[in-house]
Amino acid sequence: MKRFTLIPLMLFISICCWAQPQPQNGQPRFDPEKFKQMVEQSLTAAAEFTPEEAKAFFPLYNEMRDRQRENGRQIHELKKNCSGDSKVCAATILKIKQLQVEMANMEQDYYKRMIKAVPPEKVFKVMKAEDDFHRRMVQGQRRDGNGKGMRRDGNGQRKNGRHSESAK
Description:
The protein has helices at 2-19, 32-47, 51-80, 86-117, 120-141. By secondary structure, it is an all-alpha fold. It has a domain at 50-128.
């Protein structure tokens, strides 16, 4: 009788565990709100914003990033959906370049508005800190399971054994 109740119970538990969303490679899922908070904290500290400056700066910054993300999505869709036809590819290239120019102009307009909201020195500090933040985030993604950085050999291959054998 114990086996009869134990087997369905074990089956139920295993199904429940299997149905839970699992993070890949032991990493937690990406949380956009948490990432946004991390960026804001990092940039606020680097630029030494006062609370008033942060209130004036971050709505502009977040609006600019949202518009950049939308342009990036459009560019990604154009690249993904382009067929092999020469005329279609030429038109797609022109549209992508037009979107990139629009994005650069839009970014320039937002930086002009940011400079009016906070001192230019702090906007420049934000630009540098943003690059540093993203570089740190990318380097964090290049860590192996032990928290150690992935070293590369002279051929650009990883030395942790995963891809180095394919170069031989």
